[in-house]
Amino acid sequence: MATKYSIKENSFRIGCGRYLQGSGIISTVADEVIRLGCRKAYVLGGKTALSLTREQIEESISAAGLTAIFHTYLGFCCRDTCAEIMDSDEFKACDVVIGVGGGNLMDAAKYCAVLSGKPVINIPTSSATCAAFTPLSVCYTRDGRTVGTTHHKIEVNCVIADTAILCKQPVRLLLAGVYDSIAKIYELRQRMQGISVDDGDIGLYSSYHMSEFAADFLNERLEACVEDTEKGLDSKLISDAAWVLIALTGVISGLARGSNQTAIAHKVYESLRALFPASVYPFLHGEMVGMGLIVQIAYNREGDPEQFRARMKRLGMPVRLSDIGVEPTDENLTLLREKILASTAMAGTDAEEQARFADALKLLI
Q1: Which of 341, 344, 295, 289 is nearest to 317 (CA)?
Q2: Per-domain residue ranges of the chain
Q3: Structure pTM?
Q4: Is 1-261 in CATH node 3.40.50.300?
């Protein structure tokens, strides 16, 4: 039955050895390099991210008598692309990796660092995911198809979340992070039905209640967060939201230890990337997870999926397959349905639950 779960990881990989957040705190990056016993940094960054941060990173590194090599990374976190980076002489000459950018960049920085035995410092320029914090890398082909997740055996060494940078992110990135975060409570709740703290895994139980707080915090303040982001305000609200979206959501993920909760929202995302990579290429992880939440809420039989959809639409987010360039044909819906039914998200489900899921998925037409 769908209410059963299993724990996939023995260890609690909470996610980050040291988390720093504040306005202008990027200036301390050299201190963190030195703390790790390193002298030469390989800075892996997205094009936009480096345009926002390179000068500040160079100033900090130079003032401390350190050196850095900057490399612009384009596209998704791809194992082949990362292997080419790790094989380069420039990368081999460095002793620490600094990742700068969004979720794909964070995942690529972690992948390159861990597999080469180097420490990693992540500087997120958006709060669209908790990728800066979590000890894993979601991997893709070069053209954007999901190919699986690499779970790292060590945690991120340091995250530097500069709110003066994060407050300037596009609203679209903020919204993607919010919906990625609130997905956790809906995905966990279905599996936790009827399970008490005395009967279940204490880590998963903790993750469940922390995700409940995160969702309540974000849902209550969402419109205000959007308003401050539109104004580019480095406010307490934006700082608090960034902490919830990056650090707290990362902890929630780590505490769950890969349990096979009914993560329909995230499986909708993964399946869309795998089946229709060209169509969905321009869209964000959290945007498609948000679409998956419409399905998840209907499947869970909690709340009103149409009300949930209406709020997303007011905020300018995609809410149907056609909104992300996927034709809502019977053939495409069947491909999506069958791929998710075959995934871990639906492991242990019976015929009634699978039929309920199929009906819920039609909400994306």
Answers
A1: 289
A2: 1-261
A3: 0.92
A4: no
